[in-house]
Amino acid sequence: MKVIESLFDRSNKQNKSVSVYPLLMIYQFEIGLRLPKTLFSIPKRKFKRAVDRNLLKRRLKDAYRLNKNLVESHHAVNIAFIYTGKEIMEYQKLEESMKRLLVIIKK
After folding, report:
1. Are 69 and 102 in contact (CB under 8 A)?
2. 55: which residues sit within 8 A by CB, 6+ positions away?
3. What is the CATH number of domain 20-106?
């Protein structure tokens, strides 16, 4: 729980955020962590039905799983992906956004 609290702490200068529609990524680099820790969030306010939230979460997790090699070997990082879109996006668009965000961490 401490990792999540520190990730969403607005006063922490180590936290960085980047947005590529329809995703917002909040991340922080950590010393001693071997693999990235990820969190996926779909707001209940925008998607009332759990079926829709679960569909988007599965798509995001799959897009991350297929492209996590862009991050893993380079940094120890905690990442939160927050879906900001108002409608359910196709998988290809989500994967494209995910790749663009992961390349930003790589730099």
Report:
1. no
2. 88
3. 3.30.230.10
